[in-house]
Amino acid sequence: MDLNPPPEENYANPRTCLFHVLFKAASLAFYILSALFINNFVIIFVVTVLLAALDFWVVKNVSGRILVGLRWWNEINDLGESVWRYESLDQESLARMNKKDAWLFWWTLYLTAVLWVLLGIFSLIRFQADYCLIVGVCLTLSVANIIGFTKCRKDAKKQLQQFASQAIASRVSSTLQSAFTVV
Amino acid sequence: MSHSDTIPLHSSSQSDIDEIENLINASVQSGPATVQPARPPSPPRIPVSSSPFLQSNLPPPSTAAAKLPPLPSSSAPPSVLPATVPAPAAQPPHGNSAGSNNYAASGFGPAPNTLTEPVWDTVKRDLSRIVSNLKLVVFPNPFREDPGKALRDWDLWGPFFFIVFLGLVLSWSASVKKSEVFAVAFALLAAGAVILTLNVLLLGGHIIFFQSLSLLGYCLFPLDVGALICMLKDNVILKIVVVCVTLAWSSWAAYPFMSSAVNPRRKALALYPVFLMYVSVGFLIIAID
Q: Which stretches does UniProt call biased (Polar residues) (chain B) (predicted)?
C-alpha cells in the first residue's frame, strides 16, 4: 500500500468518503479533546462509544459497498448454525472501482485501529482503567470491521482465482475435444 | 447527487451511479425478509464456509434465494449485486442511507442519494425491529415458536442501548462516584454476557455466540424498568419489591432460551449463573442511593 493517493483521478463518491471518515474522526477527536474540557466520564464514554458504533454501521453497510464493493454479514441458517457471508461485486466492476476511494477506505480503516491502540497504551500507562474500557470497545468495533472486510477481500480473490481456473480448465478441455474430433 | 457535484467524477463511476439510481427507481420490491444487523464480527467460532460469494451474473444459490425475492434480472446491470443478499442491517439511529423500503431488493443497497434521506425513516425501521425483538424475548407470547430459534435476526443495538441505559440510570441514582458506577455496571454487564455465553458453550450447549449475547442483553429490559422506577422513588421497601419483581421477570424471560440450548441434565448449571448475574444487578440497584 502506498502512502499517497493515486493521483490520476478524483474521488468518485465524495459524500460517502466524507461519512466514512466523519464518524471515525469525530469519535477520536471527541475522546481526545473531551479530556480537556469535560469532567464527566459517563458523557465521554457514551458519546465516544455511540460515535464508534455509528461509524461501524456506516463502514459496514454503506462505505464498504460503495467504495470497495465488498460486504459481509452473519446469518443463522435453518439448522441453527451461524454462517458468515461474504460478497463482492464481480470482477469487471471491481476493476472499475475508483482507486482513490479504495485507498481512502483501507487506509482510514487501518489508521483508526492504530490510533485507538495508541490511545489505549496511553491510558494503560496512566492506569486509567475506565478509559481503557472506552478504548477497548472502540477498538473492538474497528478491528471487527477490519477483519470482516479483509476476509471478504480474500474471499473475493479466492473466488476469482477459482473462477479463472475453472474457465481455463473448461477452455482447455473444449480445445482438446475439438482437437481430437478434428483428428 | 452526481449531478450537483462540482468535482468531476470518474467516467466509469458516473455510469455506476446512474445504473444504481436507475435500479433503485425501477425496483418496486419492498422490505427485507430478514434484516441483519449485527455488530459483532469477531472471527466465527464455528468454522463455516465463507459461503458462496454471489456473482452478480450467476443465479443465486437456493438457500439465499429462499430468503428474499430476487431482483428482476433484466434490469440488473453487471455492476449490481444480486438482491438475494439479505439487506444488511439497518441499524443505526443515524440512518445514513439504507432508508428506503425497496432497499433490500435493489441489490447494491442504498443509492448514494439516500445519504441525504431523512433520518427518521431509518430510525423508525430500526426501532421497530428492536421493538419486535424485544416483544419476542421479554413479553409473554403464547404463539412463540421454538425458543431456540428466536432472535434469529439477532442484533446488538438493543442490548447496547439497554446496557448503556442501565448504566446511566445507576449512575444518575448514585450520589457519589458516578463514573465508577457507570463503568462498573457497563463492564459487569458486558463481560457477564460474554462469560455466560461461554458457560453455555462449554457445557456443551448449542447456542450461537452473538444470538446469546443479544438475548441476554434484551432480557435486561425489565431490570432497566426497575432501575428507572427505583431512581424516581427512593423508598427502600418499594425498591426491594420492584427489584424482586423485575428480577423474576428477567430470569423468566431468559429461561426458555438458555434451557433449550443445553442438555436437560445441565439446565441448572447454565441457568444459575444467569440468575446470579441478574441478582447482582438487582443488588446494585437497591444499594445505590
A: 1-15
Decide: residue A162, CB within 10 A, 0-12 exposed, 13-18 middle, 19+ buried: exposed
Distance of CA B92 to the CA centre of its chain: 10
Q: Which residue of A has its CA nearest to B34?
A: A75
Query: Are the CB atoms for A152 and A72 separated by under 8 Å?
Result: yes
How many A/B residue pairs have CB atoms within 8 Å?
A: 181
* Local confidence pLDDT in tens for the 183 residues of chain A: 566 766 666 777 778 788 888 999 999 999 988 878 888 888 899 999 999 998 998 888 778 777 788 878 777 777 777 788 887 777 767 777 777 888 888 899 999 999 999 999 999 998 888 889 899 999 999 999 999 999 888 888 888 888 888 889 999 999 999 888 877
Q: Which H or E element spans position A71?
A: strand A70-76
This model of the complex carries an ipTM of 0.78
Binary contact (B46, A163; C-beta < 8 A) = no
Q: pTM score, two decimals?
A: 0.68
